[in-house]
Amino acid sequence: MRQAPSDTASIVLLSVSLIAAGAACGQAYPSRPVRFVTSAVGGGNDFAARMIANGLTASLGQQVIVDNRGGSHIPQLTVSRATPDGYTILVQNNTVWVAPLLEKVAYDHFTELAPITLTARAPNVLVVHPSLPINSVKELIAAAKAAPGDINYASGVVGSSNYIAAELFKAMAGVNLVRIGYKGSGPALIDVMAGQVKVMFATTTSSWGHVKSGRLKALAITSAEPSALAPGLPTIAASGVPGYKAESIYGAWAPAKTPAAILKRLNQEIVKVLTAAQTRERFFSTGAEVVASTPEVFAAEIKAESARLDKVFKSAGIRAN
Questions:
Q1: CA-based, 20 to 30 A from 172: which of 55, 192, 263, 312?
Q2: What is the DSSP string of 188-232?
Q3: 135 near 219, Cβ under 8 Å?
Q4: pLDDT higher than threshold 70 for residue 10
């Protein structure tokens, strides 16, 4: 008995549908441009995003576009609400987890963002004006304790890396340094060099040349270990404040629930870009050292740093204005 034409058509349509579905499921990632969301143009976040994007465009075979978003929390919020398909990636520093410790934010980085890799670290240098008769961290602590509130420090906005570094120092060293706030780190450093303010936790790139010229005096670096970014300079932790560490930590995140295979591919490709000699040199020239890690290592660091900073911030009453 011959099969009815309608049955034959149904079988053909079903076969075509199954083939199409299989092709879609097996489609290689990425099949279209990838977007890196970061903060405004200029600064460490923008630099990191562009450096990684340039390398990934070649290795992924798709254009990686840098999408700059103004506002302190906009990049994180944008990615936390994006479709978890690997096409929207956050490239940002530790403001991702520091901001929620200082103020209420509209995202939960623990549940809405998936760590991909820790990309780089950028420590600050504790510098003072040469007129200040202080040559070590211990001497600074002694002077500050002898005259509470007499020594001031310059910083950018609340939550900036130099602000966090200074406030952590105050809390952990038990000293009272008076903050003189600026809209940016550049104007703050200018006033320190002019002697208007005596102390600052400045980036290595902005301060090291002035240290060499004698316009600033460097006391210590804020990283946990000595750094080639500031040769010969001791750490604050080894100079009288055990356990002290304050760095800008840069990383990459995807929206939560992004497939594990895509996260693995992104991690592998980003790490490959970061560990290239040229990339390391470029980061170093901007005052940062490449770190490249697994998602698990990055997630553990975020958890540990969040707990450490939360404890210090609460005990010292540190909050955003």
A1: 192
A2: HHHHHHTTSS-EEEEEHHHHHHHHHHTSSEEEEE-SSS--TTSTT
A3: yes
A4: no
pLDDT tens per residue across span 16-29: 443 333 333 446 89
Is the distance from CB of 95 to CB of 159 less than 8 angstroms? yes
**Superfamily for 123-239?**
Periplasmic binding protein-like II (3.40.190.10)
Where are the chain's structural domains?
Answer: 34-122+248-316, 123-239
Domains 34-122+248-316 and 123-239 share a fold: yes
Give the CA radius of gyration of the chain.
24
Strands (E), the chain: 34-38, 64-68, 88-92, 113-128, 152-155, 178-181, 199-203, 217-221, 247-255, 289-290
**Residue 137's closest CA among 149, 125, 148?**
125
Question: What number of other Cβ atoms are within 10 A of residue 200's Cβ?
Answer: 31
CATH architecture of the domain with range 34-122+248-316: 3-Layer(aba) Sandwich (3.40)
The values of phi and psi at residue 132, to 5°, are: -80, 120
The Cα 313–Cα 47 span in angstroms is: 29
The answer to whether the peptide bond before residue 30 is cis (omega within 30 degrees of 0) is yes
